[in-house]
Design a protein that fits this description.
The protein is mainly alpha-helical and about 240 residues long. Helices cover about 65% and strands about 0% of the residues. It is built from 13 helices and no strands.
Length: about 240
């Protein structure tokens, strides 16, 4: 069923899968079934992997299939072996994480960021995550706000702080990483643009449209979103900075 939906993704991506309730039900039900078998999930992802893995294809149809792959791969990041992540997920996402991307393809960029966040959050990928979090965080700050919406940026920062704060295994190896991320965020706030960001669609979790916010507002909201994941001592240090 997922392979059939893969072939039809050029249609569903234009209509919006969130507006097609039956499509969403079938898709998520099939994903739930496949999540029970790691081997079958990996074989499926290899079957639908991008034809030009590691680069952005020129044809819109191929890019639509890349987006389907990324959206689907996000669901399986938590069960795939780390070597499969390195061979499949990371190379497929990497070209869409570039700072030189076209803003018109922001939906694929956001799908790629979601894949990377899912990979970094998987407990069994800790060694890979420790080596990738800092480069990814640096990239995140470079592509926002041109290639990422405020909503996606806030989500990414929140996830990074969550997976680098106690009691995560990453925090045991890199105890200052969460504080470093917040410090970079706080520094960026001071020189951020206060003009509202237009051009990238925004939506709440329920799909309703929201008012555009400025880069500065998005950064402050990202800082506030991250506070619940900090330790008590760190929270005491960062609360004044959020107000």
């Amino acid at each position: 069923m997922l392979k059939i939906l893969h072939r039809l993704c050029f249609i569903s991506s234009r209509l919006g899968t969130d507006t097609l309730s039956h499509h969403a039900f079938v898709y998520l039900a099939a994903v739930d079934v496949l999540l029970q078998d790691r081997t079958q999930a990996e074989e499926f992802l290899r079957d639908i992997q991008p034809a030009e893995i590691g680069q952005i294809p020129k044809h819109p149809l191929d890019r639509s299939m890349d987006r389907y792959f990324l959206i689907t791969a996000e669901h399986f990041a938590s069960i795939l072996h780390t070597f499969a992540v390195k061979e499949l997920l990371a190379p497929a996402a990497s070209p869409y994480l570039s700072i030189d991307g076209d803003p018109k393809m922001f939906q694929i960029f956001e799908a790629a960021h979601c894949v990377m966040l899912a990979v970094l959050a998987a407990p069994h990928n800790i060694k890979y995550a420790v080596s990738q979090i800092e480069p990814y965080a640096g990239l995140l700050f470079q592509v926002f706000p041109r290639l990422l919406s405020p909503r996606q940026f806030r989500f990414a920062v929140k996830q990074l702080v969550r997976i680098t704060s106690p009691p995560s295994l990453i925090s045991e190896q890199r105890p200052l990483l969460a504080a470093t991320l917040l410090e970079a965020l706080h520094t960026r706030v001071k020189r951020a643009d206060s003009q509202r960001i237009y051009g990238l669609p925004e939506a709440d979790a329920d799909g309703s449209n929201t008012e555009p916010m400025s880069e500065q507002s998005a950064l402050v909201h990202a800082l506030i979103d991250a506070l619940p994941f900090l330790s008590a001592d760190e929270l005491e240090n960062w609360l004044p900075a959020a107000y």
